[in-house]
Specification:
about 100 residues, mainly beta
């Protein structure tokens, strides 16, 4: 059984016992329920308006914060002697889908 869920404004196709990286969530939550937008079980599909009623996708947080690659952002203005270099490192949360019921 697979489901399309929404976490933090993004949609993910997930199955049971799958781990995925999502944008940083609250550190206080250990388990949560995601909104299933569509559920697929073999050849049958259930599409929600906006969510599927009676189906719950429960997930648990494995690692609260996981850092991604550092990206350098360079802003340069020609003939003005202005150059700014900043960096950005996205923070993620590792999540395991425990049950689709």
């Amino acid at each position: 059984m697979k489901a399309v869920i929404r976490i933090g404004g993004k949609q993910y196709v997930v199955a049971e016992k799958q781990t995925l990286l999502v944008d940083k969530l609250d550190d206080k939550t250990k388990t949560f329920e995601a909104e299933p937008l569509m559920v697929m079980d073999g050849d049958t599909f259930k599409v929600g308006t906006p969510t599927v009623k009676g189906v719950k996708v429960s997930a648990k947080v494995i690692d609260p914060i996981l850092a991604g690659e550092k990206i350098q952002v360079i802003k340069f203005k020609a003939k003005k002697r202005v150059k700014t270099i900043t960096g950005h490192r996205q923070k993620y949360t590792k999540v395991e889908i425990s049950k689709i019921a």
